[in-house]
Write the structure tokens for this entry.
Amino acid sequence: MKSSSSLLWRSGQSNPTFYLQKGFQEYVLRKKPPGPLLPKAHQIDREFKVQKALFSVGFPVPKPLLYCSNASVIGTEFYVMEHVQGRIFRDFTIPGVSPAERSAIYVAMIETLAQLHSLNIHSLQLERYGIGAGYCKRQVSTWTKQYQAAAHQDIPAMNQLSDWLMKNLPDNDNEENLIHGDFKLDNIVFHPTQSRVIAVLDWELSTIGHPLSDLAHLSIFYFWPRTVPFINQSSHFQEVIGIPSMEELISIYSRCRGISPILPNWNFFLALSYFKMAGILQGVYSRYLLGNNVSENSFLFANVVQPLAETGLQLSKRTLRTVPPHADTTQQLFAQSKRGQEVLTQVKHFMNQHILPAEKEVIEFYVQNENSENKWKKPLVIDKLKEMAKAEGLWNLFLPAISGLNQVDYALIAEETGKCFFAPDVFNCQAPDTGNMELLHLYGNEKQKQQWLEPLLQGSIASCFCMTEPDVASSDATNIECSIQRDGDSYVINGKKWWSSGAGNPKCKIAVVLGRTENTSASRHKQHSMILVPMSTAGVEVIRPLSVFGYMDHLHGGHFEIHFNQVRVPASNLILGEGRGFEIAQGRLGPGRIHHCMRIVGLAERALQIMCTRAAQRVAFKKKLYSHEVVAHWIAESRIAIEEIRLLTLRAAHKIDTLGSSGAKKEIAMIKVAAPRAACKIIDRAIQVCGGAGVSQDYPLANMYALTRTLRLADGPDEVHLSAIAALELRDQARSLRAKV
């Protein structure tokens, strides 16, 4: 038998935590502290129960292995879980990383908190894990008693804060969500190299209660008194570049949960958090005096209870803003965050200095290789530009959890990249990979993320999306016939797909396939599923590329017909579960649709630029083209149309940021119709101004028109979106009429 070893970790201030090793296996043991304890504290069995429930639904926690209630084994009850290898940031300012990564880490953390609060306690079978209703009142009462039991001196501010909290309880003290109780950066394990949460630790204080208590606990460090030293923090929290503001975190949290970012009683929850923090530290110091605390820093907490209580009192008297301020709103209706402005400036510079000057070389490569086997490859200059963009941190800008950007930020950045047909690829922001990466980020399990999401994020592989079928009207997705049938530990896929974008890319290694896992008892929208199919799997047959108005779209890997003939993949390749295909598709297509529209705005700007340049250069009937009224009107109408679709795109992005994709359905559908229509008209006018040159290979306009016209079909035809807009508008109008009655 291989030897075993253990090591006590000093980082915990509460339940002693041990690292165990048995051969190559690594574990973590948590146990109660020895000696007399405060009532209802250190309930190890609850930690094990909640982690077991969360692990079962794919929430990032260490896998719980066993719980032992027999105190005779090691002196106290304990539980064991798997060890998760990753990064834990003890210093909340996260020194040693770039501002972009620092921002992305905070975004990933707040998205994880929103994910936790979106879980259904009934589905988790945790209805009796806590009382729920009346949580705030119980918290004030409980922590008042905990503090009084542990107090070593009289602190008037604690008594005053306790009284204020009890007299100012929120009216909506009846929310029932699973809450962590101590959610903060050093209780989270991040991926070793990515800004992604892989485990949330320390569930000792978890219960059923009000979710804003967790959010406030995470936010107290924005108000941390400068007179109170913070253990292992190298500089003051708000002075560090890259840490989002409290308002920005609340905006992201609210968007992910689909709630308003205007939070009622926010000062109450912040004051309660300071009261709890003061009570916790008083308890730590009390255990230190009794000799029951393992932390070498416990003696430092003797003098911090009073200033924390005083800060809580100050916050109780303030009216706090929870919505990010929009600086310079006279010039910009939808303002970018500070980080968004910085990245946009970088992208513009990179476009002008590196991408646009390489455009001619890229075009020549595809012209020269049109009939060769290299036509699906990419020129070396693009690989070089990718390395440069990655080195400058201009990589995966579309994904908030990595880039730290919101949708409004990315809208203006994507507009810039839309001005050149290969620019999105340079920043690893190209379709269909962006949609597939978002899908795996939102719905993939840890194994799927490790195997496919990580190399996609690195840009080392590419992917395709297989949904549309040649034999059915795929605009009604319930028609999809490709079958995904369970067979033991596998699924077998049979069917035909076409317009599978990206399949011709030599780096395309994985396909996301939508198919029917028919369940006659389920509704028609719950009979389809999504599954991951490696392109090298036996039975995957790439039939032929499909042209778009004669263009093969080599750069983006083309658009292919693919047949799946008895294709067998492991059951673990299924994404989220059977019957969840449409749910996933809507989550994927929401941001994906708006990304297309963002780029279209930039493409329309480029077409207008070409139109104006040509109109200023050419003379017809003894005057410049722009002097002809019809051309002047085309220019004016094009500028009006661009401003209209830009504002509608930004409005949709803002809605996604504040209400989530589900709250922005109408705006997403509106811009999906409006942007391609407007851009097609603008490109058509530019072609008219350029004459014969406009439809030749000397200008990009013909290719621009082909791709833009296709977007009136891709991700749903205009007519489907128009029907959806009408239905949503009628619903909103009916609600308005009922409200008036």
Remarks:
- The longest strand covers residues 490-501.
